[in-house]
Amino acid sequence: MSDKSVKSSRTDFDKVLKTFVNKAEQQHRLNQNQIENIRRKNRIAGLFFGALVISIYSFTMYNVKQEKFLDKIDDDDDD
User: Fold this and answer.
1) pLDDT for res 25
2) Which parts of the chain have pLDDT scores under 70?
3) What are the residue boundaries of the structural domains of the chain, listed by start?
4) Which alpha helices (H) appear in the chain, and where do they start and end?
5) pLDDT at position 26, please?
6) What positions does the domain Cytochrome c oxidase assembly factor 3 mitochondrial coiled-coil occupy (predicted)?
Protein backbone atom coordinates (compact mmCIF):
# COMPACT_ATOMS: atom_id res chain seq x y z
CA MET A 1 0.00 0.00 0.00
CA SER A 2 1.16 3.47 -0.70
CA ASP A 3 1.34 6.28 1.79
CA LYS A 4 -1.51 8.12 0.09
CA SER A 5 -3.91 5.21 0.42
CA VAL A 6 -2.94 4.72 4.08
CA LYS A 7 -3.47 8.43 4.79
CA SER A 8 -6.72 8.37 2.84
CA SER A 9 -8.04 5.34 4.71
CA ARG A 10 -6.87 6.89 7.99
CA THR A 11 -8.69 10.13 7.13
CA ASP A 12 -11.83 8.21 6.18
CA PHE A 13 -11.61 6.24 9.41
CA ASP A 14 -11.24 9.47 11.40
CA LYS A 15 -14.30 10.96 9.68
CA VAL A 16 -16.37 7.86 10.39
CA LEU A 17 -15.11 7.77 13.97
CA LYS A 18 -15.99 11.44 14.49
CA THR A 19 -19.44 10.81 13.05
CA PHE A 20 -20.08 7.93 15.44
CA VAL A 21 -18.68 9.88 18.40
CA ASN A 22 -20.93 12.84 17.55
CA LYS A 23 -23.96 10.56 17.26
CA ALA A 24 -23.10 8.91 20.58
CA GLU A 25 -22.68 12.30 22.28
CA GLN A 26 -25.98 13.50 20.84
CA GLN A 27 -27.76 10.35 22.04
CA HIS A 28 -26.14 10.76 25.46
CA ARG A 29 -27.40 14.35 25.70
CA LEU A 30 -30.89 13.20 24.68
CA ASN A 31 -30.88 10.45 27.32
CA GLN A 32 -29.57 12.88 29.90
CA ASN A 33 -32.41 15.32 29.19
CA GLN A 34 -34.98 12.54 29.41
CA ILE A 35 -33.54 11.34 32.72
CA GLU A 36 -33.59 14.90 34.10
CA ASN A 37 -37.25 15.26 33.12
CA ILE A 38 -38.13 11.95 34.75
CA ARG A 39 -36.25 12.91 37.92
CA ARG A 40 -38.04 16.26 38.05
CA LYS A 41 -41.43 14.56 37.71
CA ASN A 42 -40.47 11.99 40.37
CA ARG A 43 -39.46 14.76 42.79
CA ILE A 44 -42.77 16.56 42.24
CA ALA A 45 -44.70 13.32 42.77
CA GLY A 46 -42.66 12.55 45.90
CA LEU A 47 -43.33 15.97 47.36
CA PHE A 48 -47.02 15.67 46.56
CA PHE A 49 -47.38 12.25 48.18
CA GLY A 50 -45.26 13.31 51.16
CA ALA A 51 -47.50 16.33 51.70
CA LEU A 52 -50.55 14.10 51.34
CA VAL A 53 -49.28 11.67 53.97
CA ILE A 54 -48.38 14.46 56.38
CA SER A 55 -51.75 16.14 55.92
CA ILE A 56 -53.66 12.88 56.48
CA TYR A 57 -51.59 12.14 59.58
CA SER A 58 -52.12 15.66 60.93
CA PHE A 59 -55.85 15.53 60.23
CA THR A 60 -56.12 12.19 62.01
CA MET A 61 -54.22 13.44 65.06
CA TYR A 62 -56.38 16.57 65.18
CA ASN A 63 -59.60 14.55 65.06
CA VAL A 64 -58.42 12.05 67.66
CA LYS A 65 -57.66 14.91 70.07
CA GLN A 66 -61.21 16.19 69.64
CA GLU A 67 -62.86 12.90 70.54
CA LYS A 68 -64.35 13.04 74.02
CA PHE A 69 -66.24 9.73 74.10
CA LEU A 70 -63.30 7.90 75.66
CA ASP A 71 -63.24 10.44 78.48
CA LYS A 72 -66.94 9.80 79.12
CA ILE A 73 -66.36 6.05 79.21
CA ASP A 74 -63.52 6.50 81.70
CA ASP A 75 -65.69 8.80 83.84
CA ASP A 76 -68.53 6.26 83.87
CA ASP A 77 -66.16 3.52 85.03
CA ASP A 78 -64.98 5.66 87.95
CA ASP A 79 -68.56 6.10 89.28
Assistant:
1) 96
2) 1-6, 67, 69-71, 73-79
3) 3-78
4) 3-66, 69-78
5) 97
6) 33-75
